[in-house]
Amino acid sequence: MTHEIDLEAVVGRFYTSLYRFALSLTKNEAEAGDLTQQTFFILAQRSHQIRDSSKVKCWLFTTLRREFLRALRVQSSHPHVEFRPEIHDGPSISPDALRALDAKAVIDALHQIEPTYRTAVELFYLSELSYKEIAQTLEIPIGTVMSRLSRGKEQLKAILAAAISENSDKIIPLKRDEEAAH
Amino acid sequence: MKKPRTEITNESAKFVLNAYRPNGADAQDPVFRVALEQAARDPELAAWFKEQRSFDSLIADKLAEIQPPANLYSAILAGIANRSPIRRFNLRPLLALAAVLILSGAILLPFYLESLSTSKSIEQYQRANLTMLSSSPAPSLDLVTADFSRTQEYLAEMKAPCIPFLPGSLLDLPTAGCKSLHWKGQEFSLTCFRLPSGELLHVFVIDEKAFRSINVGDKFREMDGWHVKCQRRAGMLLMFVSRASMAEIKQFI
Question: What pLDDT is recorded for position A60?
């Protein structure tokens, strides 16, 4: 059944989660804002193509990702992120240590996940998409989504554990004048 | 007694439960039923699942702290408000038209090739705009207002192209006004923003179909004493022009 899309309501409902997803892709607030605006602009132009208004959520995330990839192709600057193989074991992390991290540190950790798994994990956490919606958005089978979530989350845990451990291991040297005073 | 067929290994259950959303929205999804039942029976799996859900919730909560810029919502609405959707066409008349065009194409091709040599180029368009901006006295604006939304409403009323999106924090700037223009029979628009230094930042918008081919760099360049940058977005060609310092321009674009 075809429904007329209420654009303003759609913007109000999805722009925050779409912006978060854009930020995770671009790592840049201004570019994330542009990408979010661009996605809604395309929706305004092509709203008649969405025959089922319940699909608009997946459509928005798919379109935003496509626009991001298109811009990347234009710039020819695919960022290459290497994952450190020694941290694949998925250690347990204390909730308190995790709470102490800020959102930026979590975004940075998401960026270190291997690109193959990263987008599925980002959609899972940033947009709370179900595994079916992630499959639709990324145009991959459901089994592949589960596999990517499983591997990606394992990597995320390892990266966060390494970041937490790195911070706690930092030794802050005393300043020379403070040393002299003692 | 044989184990029921629905029982799965803990590793398989973990694989499936990794896709279980922390907000519990998947509680009724039958895909998770067997794995959830297994977690209810097996203490080791239950402990893993509890820890996993706690981790997922913490990550989701951390990421939910990210808030979009305060002006993004109004910028999106301003961008889409004046844009009418592309209309759907009945395919049959289009196919008939295509057939006519193909047949007539062979006849018209020589004329078309001749016309290419005189077609519009971006360079000409850019030069024309810079000449207009440099003219003395300076061209007057159709509408003088500091309100960006008003400029776009006016341009929409005049059937001139609106700015489809605003890069960076341009929306934080007040506008000086806007103007509806024509170039070689093509409507285009000018919206001017007032930079903190007092210099203006001019944004021209034209439908990119006005040009046969578009090849623009993504950086500012110097043209006749102006800093100029073109950018393609959503079927439009945006041309940013200013005499302000590059350091100031880069704060906003």
Answer: 93
**Three-class secondary structure of residue B218 per DSSP:** coil
Q: Which residue of B has its CA nearest to A22?
A: B68
Q: B203-223 pLDDT, tens per residue?
A: 999 988 888 777 777 788 888
Q: Which helix (H) or strand (E) holds B91?
A: helix B91-116
In chain A, which residue's Cα lies nearest the Cα of B57? A125
Size of interface A-B (CB pairs under 8 A): 138
For B4-14, the pLDDT digits (tens) are: 455 678 888 89
Burial class of residue A79 (count of CB atoms within 10 Å of its CB; 0-12, 13-18, 19+): exposed
Strand, helix or coil for residue B241: strand
- Decide if A114 contacts A152 (C-beta within 8 A): yes
Chain B residue whose CA is closest to A47: B85
Strand partners, B175: B193
For residues A107 and A67, membership in a common domain is answered with no
Q: Is A73 on the interface with B (CB under 8 A)?
A: no
Domains of chain B: 10-64 (no CATH), 120-249 (3.40.1000)
The more confident residue out of B8 and A131 is: A131
Nearest CB neighbour to B83, from listed A23, A36, A45: A45
Task: Provide the domain count of chain A.
Answer: 2
Domain assignment of residue A173, yes or no? no
The phi and psi torsions of B203 (rounded to 5 degrees) equal -125, 110
Q: Which residues 21-50 on chain A approach chain B with CB closer than 8 angstroms?
A: 23, 29-30, 32-34, 36-38, 40-48
Interface ipTM: 0.73
Contact of B63 with chain A, judged by CB distance below 8 Å, is answered with yes
Contact list in A for residue B219 (CB cut-off 8 A) is none
